[in-house]
Fold each of these.
Amino acid sequence: MSVSLITGTPVPAVVPGAAAARGGAAGASFGDSLKGLLSSVDSSAGDANTAVSEMVTGSGDVHHAMIALQQAEMTLQLTVQIRNKLMQAYQDVMRMSV
């Protein structure tokens, strides 16, 4: 199942165990998923900058600019939370005794 953003850029849905069900090697790796997330953050920030520039010059709509800004902010917040969870998991693994 894929969720589409307002701009039409598809965002793959995250389903636990989906990579294992696809066969692991045939599916995207975890690193590829992170690269995709970072590229979507970059593209949403670029879309927001473009929308604000259009609004300032008068060729764009205020509503479109605000939606693009909120979308970029939400994408960045998601990325930060994923980073926080990864760091917490890494610290938990490092604290384990062998």
Amino acid sequence: MPELYDPTIQRPEEQNQARMLARVLFSETKDVEDAKNIASVIVNRTKRPERFGATIQDVVYAPKQFSGVYGNEWNKALNQKFTDKEAEIYKQLLQVAYQAVTGKLEDKTGGADHYFNPKIVKPKWSAKMTKTTENKNHSYYKE
């Protein structure tokens, strides 16, 4: 399968950031609306570089932050090894990622910089933060 490409992405640095963000989105969720929130969390973290890192790459590769990074779904996206259905989902996630990278994605998380799946885990840190929103997959919090 040839590499998926979004022709609306013009600048090489935006292409690289969008692809990295799309990979982490694909590794974390297959739901486009959920992906928009996760993308917002990652972008929100870049707004606090002293805490989280200045770039999407810094945020994504920070230790123990995104469970999907380097997992099976991450590798599928990295290597563009998708089923036809996954390829369609990835295309949608790449568009979300591009919107996030270019500042065109509306943040519906209330500025959240953390999230987790409450069906899987209830981290201790969540008690010290403000819950901003939730959906069927994740709860979102702000420090």
